[in-house]
Amino acid sequence: MVCRQSILFGLCCSLLIGGTTGANAAAYGVGEKNPSISIELNNAQPVDNACRLSFLIQNDLGSPLDAMSLEIVILDNAGLVQDLMVLSTGALAKDKRRLRQFDLPGGGCEDLGEILINDVADCQGEAVTKDVCLKALEPSSKTQIKLGL
Hints:
single chain, alpha/beta, Immunoglobulin-like, four-stranded mixed beta sheet, 8 strands, 23% helix, 50% strand
């Protein structure tokens, strides 16, 4: 009898807590996804006399982007600036990941220490600005090369 009461008590508590938590979560926006543009440096491979950078980019802003360009700074392993350039991602559909590849001329990938996203050079879409895109950027890297803001 004690076991049965404990199970019923636990079930009732779970339902009450779950229901209340769900209601509170909806009321306070908990669990809702913040608008973001995730950009992951997924791979860096030497090709010919260049380093091919592969980025996975996902637009979770809630609307498509017609175009986006990022001003990036290339830093070597010692943290010294090697190059400044603008990379164009092209159009980015809403809620879809895209692969974009760029070849950095002049050598292999082993000398790259970090890629700094210096600014959003361009961001076009419905009700978006460069500032909105910059604030929404979420950089990450699966390589030895850091990617950051």
